[in-house]
Amino acid sequence: MSAQSTVVKANTVPRLRARKGGEPIVCLTAYTAPMAQLLDPHADLLLVGDSLGMVVYGLPSTVPVTIDMMIAHGAAVARGSTKALVVIDMPFGTYEESPALAYRNAVRILQETGASAVKLEGGVVMAETIRFLTARGIPVMGHIGLLPQSVNASGGYAALGTKDTAGWDAIIADAMAVADAGAFSIVVEAVSEPLAVRVTESVDVPTIGIGASAACDGQVLVIDDMLGMSNRTPKFVKRYAELGVAIGEAAAAYAAEVRGRQFPSEAYTYRLKGDNRGPGGTGT
């Protein structure tokens, strides 16, 4: 794939980092250029999430997602955005082995998409890698709490810190390590509200919550969940529309008209030059 030119967007990494404690940051996922165009006027940040594996490709988790998938969709979203900062997930297996491997893959992602930053999962264990990347000019968004790429190790998608405070210190330590390593913001996924408060207060960079309450400095949702286009709706998702129902109804109406030979009617049919039938007319 040919390299994409990086375009400086209205929302830059320094500007979003400076939003700590200020106006909440609006973030949504996007996977295509048309969706990016629709969301760009309203979002501060568009995340090309590896959730595309489940949302777009029907995979059971994010684990099988490849770097080529992320680059193809990331480039499309970057082309469709003029204002929002575009951040791309580094998929499972592209950064965990070593900082050097992470750097090579992050460079490829940014060069081939035109995006502004990458996101990777992990706290204390990934701090060295984040520091390595940021020291070399690659902006990094962190991700702590529930880690979807680690679903095979964790055994599921259960929220954290909801039963007691036993595991809170480790999650707070993850956030602090990621921030200290140079991440410009941190996604905090599926944690209890009081834990989200503690995490947000513990770091000097914006926290972006997904299932982490309004205590965070911003929010992100998977666009298909928010629009009612997914079958599974996590507790933390508010469905702002029911486009899945609307699409099904439209497809049913189309199918009925095709089977009844009502579509295409004259209004949607090309005619021979000189045919003077009016729109919808039957001719002579």
Topology:
Blueprint: H1 13-17, E1 25-29, H2 33-39, E2 45-48, H3 52-55, H4 67-80, E3 85-89, H5 99-113, E4 117-119, H6 127-135, E5 140-145, H7 151-154, H8 168-180, E6 185-189, H9 193-202, E7 207-210, E8 218-221, H10 223-226, H11 243-259
Parallel strand pairs: 1-2, 1-8, 2-3, 3-4, 4-5, 5-6, 6-7, 7-8
Helix pairs in contact: 2-4, 4-5, 5-6, 8-9
Strand order of the largest sheet: 1-2-3-4-5-6-7-8
Q: Beta-strand percentage?
A: 5-15%
Largest sheet: 8 strands, parallel, barrel
Distance between the termini: 55 Å
Mean pLDDT: 94
* Rg calculated over all Cα atoms: 22 Å
Q: Flag low-confidence runs.
A: none
Short description:
The protein is of the alpha/beta class and 284 residues long.
Give the key terms.
8 strands, alpha/beta, 284 residues, 8-stranded parallel β-barrel, elongated
Verbal overview:
- 36% of the residues lie in helices and 13% in strands.
- It is α/β, with parallel strands linked by helices and 284 residues long.
- The protein has an eight-stranded parallel β-barrel with strand order 1-2-3-4-5-6-7-8, surrounded by five helices.
- α5 packs across α6.
- The protein is elongated and about 75 Å long.
